[in-house]
Prior knowledge:
Blueprint: E1 3-4, E2 15-18, E3 24-29, E4 44-51, H1 58-68, E5 75-80, H2 87-93, E6 97-100, H3 106-115, H4 130-148, H5 153-164, E7 169-172, H6 179-189, E8 195-198, H7 205-218, E9 223-226, H8 230-236, H9 242-245, H10 247-263, E10 268-270, E11 287-290, E12 293-296, H11 304-313
Parallel strand pairs: 1-6, 3-4, 4-5, 5-6, 7-8, 7-10, 8-9, 10-12
Antiparallel strand pairs: 2-3, 11-12
The structure holds iron/sulfur cluster (SF4).
Residues 200, 202, 243, 247, 250-251, 254-255, 330-331, 333-334, 356 line the site of iron/sulfur cluster.
Amino acid sequence: MLNLQLDHQSRPDVDARIASGGGEILTVPASADWRELKDRVPQAVQIDVHFESFKDGRGFTLASQLRGRLGFDGRLRATGHVLPDQALHLKRVGFDEVSPDRTDVADDWSQAQTRFATVYQPAQRGGETVVAKRTRSKADLAALNARYRGMEAEEIFEDAIKRIWPGRIAMMSSFGAEAAVGLHMIAKVAPSTPVLFLDTGRLFAQTEQYQRELVEKLDLTNLRIIQPSALEVAEEDADGKLWSRNNDACCTLRKVRPLDRISEDYDAMITGRKRFHGGDRIELPVVERLDGRIRVNPLASWSHERIDAYFKRYDLPRHPLTEMGYASIGCWTCTAPAQDGDVRSGRWAGQSKSECGIHRPVPVAAE
Ligand code: SF4
């Protein structure tokens, strides 16, 4: 943070005085040429750059040159006519402190420094630019997918939870037809991993019962039940039939927004999605970035047969609705038994919708 000094007195000319602890305090106008300061800077412990007008960009350039070209690492202050809106940029070019000629806007200064989190141009100080972040995240993603190529699902769970995102990763689970496999792996690797369960208020009673059964059997110790905001439900779905009028808006209200609200708690989330589910999932990578959020899909390459074998090998309980033909299980209002062996055909059956949006959050306006 920039320090804010409110005792500013105008010192427009080049000036030097001795600091109390030794060394010089230089005062220079924003228009000063850095080359003319070369001999003075080594003795300086503080340099005040004085702005006659907030419009004079030369003070920013000078600060950058003092830091970058002359290697000045003492205290750098901006004095005179500088504005709170310039706080972030002042900080990024290397200023430590401001001493503005207007002292009635102290609150504005402290707020201005946190207003923008994203920067576009490189600077002496001030964090990674958007372009650098995007480049790094693409490289990170490629590296992670390369790292996981050839690894078994259990190893991916272990690596992601213990080494790549320790304490910053959660498992998302619908406690649906195949959920026990991923949850069983979590239980083996780290049973205290947060398990996020979206309770939309429209779940089958059998799902709620199965959730309790699995948590107890697998000894999962960190279940987080995520519910929609009661206020938003009252406002946007007062009659409880939004799902029948606008299922995208309903999923946004009951799934996407509740998950969004807790997403900041985690750097990555594990899902149980698989390529054999078809639709958008056919080319599912093991690690992906959706709207800036990391999803890890350790079971992406698993087949229906492999899932089945895992259930048998570990004697895992089945969701009660699977014996009635349900292969993918969501809200009771929008789920039917699967047709013709197509796992997700029972979700929003007969409609173009195939995903609820939590894996591709797209804000949908309420009705
Ligand atoms: S699956 Fe249906 S009921 Fe559940 S949130 Fe989506 S639209 Fe609403």
